[in-house]
Amino acid sequence: MGGYATADGQIKKGMLYRGGQIFDLSTQQVTFLRDHLGISRIVDFRSTAERNQYPDSVWQGVDYEPVDVLVDAKKSGVSIEGMINNAGDISQVMLATYARLVTSASAQKGYRQFLTALVADPQPTFFHCFAGKDRTGVAAALILKIAGASDAEIFSDYLKTNQSRKKANEAIIARLADQLTAGQQKALGQALVVDKRYLSHFFETIEQQYGSFANYLKSGLKLAPDFPAEFRRQYIEQG
Question: What is a single molecular function from GO for this protein (predicted)?
Answer without folding.
Answer: phosphoprotein phosphatase activity
